[in-house]
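Field: COMPLEX_INPUT
Field: COMPONENT_COUNT = three
Field: RESIDUE_TOTAL = 1189
Field: MODE = joint
Values follow.
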Amino acid sequence: MPETLKNGLELRDVRVRLDGRELLAVDLTIAPGEIVTLMGPSGSGKSSLLGHICGTLPDTFDVTGEVVLNGTPLVGLTPQERHVGILFQDDLLFPHLSVGGNLAFALPSHIKGRENRRARVEAALSSAEMDGFYDRDPATLSGGQRARVALMRVLLSEPCALLLDEPFSKLDSGLRSQIRSFVFDLCRKNSLPTLMVTHDPEDGEAAGGRVIKID
Amino acid sequence: MLRFAPILTIVLMIGPVSAGLIGTVLPAFGILPALGGTTPSLDPWQALFAQPGLGASIRLSFVNGLIATAISVAIVMLFCAAWQGTRIFRAMQRVLSPILSVPHATAAFGLAFLIAPSGWIVRLVAQFAGWDRPPDIAIIHDPWGMALIAGLVAKEIPFLFLMTLSALPQADTDRTAQVTATLGYGKTAGWFKATLPRVYPQIRLPVLAVLAYSTSVVDVAIILAPTTPAPLAVRILGWLSDPDLGLRFMASSAAVLQLLIVIAAMVVWIAGERIIGALGHHWAEDGHRFRKDSAVRGASALLALVAAGAVVLGLVVLLVWSVAGFWAFPDLLPRGFSLRLWARELDAIGSSLTTTLLIGIPAVLVAVTLVLGCLENEVRTGKAAGRRAMLLIYLPLLVPQISFMFGLQVFFTLLGLERTLLSVVLGHLVFVAPYVFLSLSEPFRALDPRYGQTALCLGASPARTFWLVRLPLLTRAVLTAAAVGLAVTVGQYLPTLLIGAGRFATVTTEAVALASGGDRRMIGIYGLLQMVLPFVGFALALLLPAVLFRNRRGMGAQNKG
Amino acid sequence: MRSRMRTFVSALALATGIAATSLSTPAFADPAPDVGNWQSVLDQARGQTVYWHAWGGEPRINDYIAWAGEQVRERYGVEVVQVKLTDTADAVTRVLSEKTAGVDDGGAVDMIWINGENFAAMKRNDLLFGPWAEQTPNFAYVDVEGKPTVVNDFTVPTDGLEAPWGMAQVSFYYDTAKLDEVPKSAQELLEWLVKHPGRFTYPQPPNYMGSTFLKQILTELVEDPSVLQQPADETDAQATLAPLWGYLEDLQPLLWRDGQAYPQNGASMRTLLADNEVDIAFSFSSGEVSSAIEAFELPDTVRSYVFENGTLGNTNFVAIPYNASAKAGAVVLADFLMSPEAQLRKQDPQYWGADTVLAMDKLPKDMQEAFANLDLGIASLAPSERGTVLPEPHPSWMSLVETEWQKRYGVVQ
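Field: COMPLEX_OUTPUT
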């Protein structure tokens, strides 16, 4: 995406309704590299909002408003066309693929050639301080390693925005701050508008961006 | 194109059943031109109701079918409640596949030999009691039909167990068990009060299929059920085989009556569900803990063991018969052994195994493809609404075979498709697809949708997501469903015989023909041969994922189904 | 990925289509062979495949059929495939379904091993091809005079619609190691059962063997046996049948399982004897009993015998449906089955042990000797031991007896 066109993720009066009841309403713009935190109790429609943005929300939910990413409205686009990455609570690394396989899966098809692709994956592993992990079984990794691989996987898919659905809640508290800084640093470095949903106030503080509370 | 998968599947299920039903309903009201029946009339029905013992036959089918199903469900639920998560449970899971490979008739033969007055158990007693003649009591073909119930229960328990196993993961049983235990409930009571209501709706369809089978079974009934009179389905088969061709009309009306019996049984069952559900609510809230449930747990283990043991022991006994010389009462073992019969049969087995696979493999492949297509379509369109329509897929399981197979034969003959491999495969598909769907739908729908969402958001197309993410994650479930499908197709008799017009000699058609010769040796040999293919299927379903994913520990947990 | 999927599906569809068309049997018209001109029949038969629908419950019979198939392939170029049936009626049903669907040519059934009620039903409903049987060369050897049932199937004239294949006669058998004395008439049977209650039974009518037992008793007890050769007249029939019901009233409570359960066919009855549940059983062929001993189903001390005043005998046949695809081939096969060579092998208990339909005096000398020198097997009855062969009643009597039996004893209250 050419630099000049980047203007971030816009949520224009997006309202999430379920069975007629309005769960949440947001209207905000996230600049590239900015991390916005959405805080609220469970069931408040936060995950549904994320699902709506990346295009995987079932149509039992009724959502109005526009979502625009870098000037392109996302309505009508399939999830795979949206270039919106998402990280869940669980790392959801594909158990049947190796660590390298997981990362290679995310690599866009315009990067051609086996060696070329492998090199990219290895580079990503290096940057996460996980050299030599290409052929490892994801199940043998520690929680922190898995979280890092999950993030690298999303970043390798060259997203234009990043959604985080309580990504740190399953990590040990000792690990959390380490992974947090890892994630947020990369978001800023890649100039990704990031929307994080969480109920842990510390996440919001560490992100350092706007914190929006939903009741 | 995937859109058409559900419609195609439903058409392939409903089409043959409807065609077959029409071919049965018309003669039931007097219309069968080949026999001179051109005007509608109620004569067949009058003839039917004039048959002696019709009420007893109906009662046998209806009541015994309900009882057999109820007992099977009760034992499976009790066993799961009492032993889930323990080593015994896992052990039972492993014994499951081989038992599922045993054809119903083979299990019935084995059981018959075990419990008959001249059978193995009595021989054991006779050794000590010094009898040289078997007692003249009706254990097999007993007037109350208890041997029939036993034979049905023995084979239904493993099937219902398999279905329950695939439903358990979604009911979050481990955590629920923890909660009920900490609340002071005994293991069994806790399961019944908290987990059963969540698990039962998932297995309702298999239970109804079992009910339909029990109330209309033919082969097991011939071996174990009373003969004076026999259950309705057996009598229908007799009427359809009678040289007096005029009986075909009455036989058709009886086949319609059989269908009504099945429907009535289902209505009663569902009413029973409601009643038990209402009672259960009161019971769940009354606070009784049933902490001391070791007796119940022991009983459930014993019952499950007896059921599994009956099948396994019956098989062992048939194995001994297959190599036996003359084996008299009260000898516990044959006087001599001979491999002569095995040698002769193994020579001929090549061609029947090939024919079985020639029909079975396409049927299973098409079924799995269709079912995966339907399920994937569900995921892609995001609609759960289609699920109601999916129930139509189970129609062939709920309509008794005898009520539509003969009509189906005429239908295929009309189309000129009789005797073709295509029509036989289609005929098998009608029964294979519902079982594959039953077996595969829970694991498929239970797969964490976030895997798919992650893949899509990583930029993969839906097709890529299916082939590279969803399908590999479901490897064991798909292979198990295929193994179930293979077991179903190998065991089919009427479709192969009728639609294939005798051109296709499969292991099962040979086995049934030889069973009419009464020789337990041949029955033993062919019963075991019938098991070979399904057993291989289940073994592959267990081994292949273990091999394919030997370096992937995470796949073990994923492939619980 | 999408285009690969499409190619795969199209390939699959194409393969299925090819498979379907190549594996489907073309339903071409099979002109009726001119049996008078035997050479033309042989010419027409060459290259045909005959689907012979025959009961497949006895492996030795299946082996015999396979042998016959090999012979016919070598000599006449006719392929024979046995379709193993559980019940002859399955084949009748098939032909009937085809007639219903209007398939008057290129049918699935080329030949059926058949007799009795099944034959009568097919004849009555015009489901058979023919006449052809009496014009085949080997029919000349058939013992029409000495064995009238070869042209009268349960008193229904065959009219050349079926060719005789084997003789059957009711004989009883028992284990000599367990019994010394055996009953040799209906009355003796009843007296024997009083002393040994529960040690005898018969297959449940309308099974063929069970009905035969009832007919056997009826033939012995009825005042004037010739009445049974005529179609049953409803009004007088009850009077004729009365002795049978009187007899059964005494017999039924003495039966195995008190008459509450019955074996379902002759083979099950044999199993009961082997299991020592009953002491006496019966079959249509003493040679079958010898075969059973060979196959380890019965101990080698079992022997056969007949009733003093004779037992029922009949013939079984092969017939050709009206819409068979390989009529000429079937005719050639049927002719071979009636040949002295095939009949000799059939009577040999090493291979089967069923009795021949041929007349010894019509055969060439060497064949006569071969038959005379045949070792009939330990439990088989030599021709001299057969006693009188009683003729089968008209099928209408059987229907009446079966229906009435089912009303009285088919449902135990």
